[in-house]
Amino acid sequence: MAGLLHRRRVQDDARRAAGDKRQDSDLVFTTKWGTPIEPRIFNRSFELSARKAGLPRIRVHDPRHTCASMPAALGVHPRVAMRVLRHSRISVTVNVYTQIASPETRKALDQLNDSLDSENP
User: Fold this and answer.
1) Among 32, 48, 66, 88, which is 20 to 30 Å from 17 by CA?
2) H/E element holding 12?
3) How many CA atoms are closer than 13 Å to the CA of 8, on its beta-carbon side?
């Protein structure tokens, strides 16, 4: 909620600065003129923000996958992630966004990691 309130303040400041040139909309993220953000510009801005934060290069949707996968890995019901991600169907959340290694997959990866560690002095 605090993030949305902050965003509203930023938009109010932009609205005052742009005056009559700003278009009103119900969008949360817009250009300083109130128009929708063009996807390529958003992607560049996202990549720049990630780089400034010292993060490795990630895709825009990677945080959404994390937002679905982390609660699932902790045993939280998928419907919770569905609500957070604003999906209309739980199948989208579970089948597209949630990525959890099964216990068998985790065990196999741990064994592979151990074998690689033992080969390197």
Assistant:
1) 48
2) helix 2-18
3) 6
Between CA 16 and CA 41 the distance in angstroms is 23
- Name the maximum alpha-carbon separation found in the chain: 68
User: By the 8 A CB rule, do 94 and 83 touch?
Assistant: no
For 50-87, write each residue's pLDDT tens digit.
899 998 888 888 888 998 998 888 889 999 999 999 99
* Residue 23: strand, helix, or coil: coil
Q: Which helix (H) or strand (E) holds 115?
A: helix 103-119
Cα dist from 107 to 40, 76, 102, whole Å: 40, 22, 9
Using CA atoms in the order 93, 111, 56, 77, what is the torsion angle rounded to 10 degrees? 20
Per-residue DSSP letters for 49-104? HHHHTTPPP--TTHHHHHHHHHHHHTT--HHHHHHHHT-S-HHHIIIII-----HH
| pTM of the entire predicted model | 0.54
112, 115, 117, 120 alpha-carbon torsion, rounded to 10°: -130
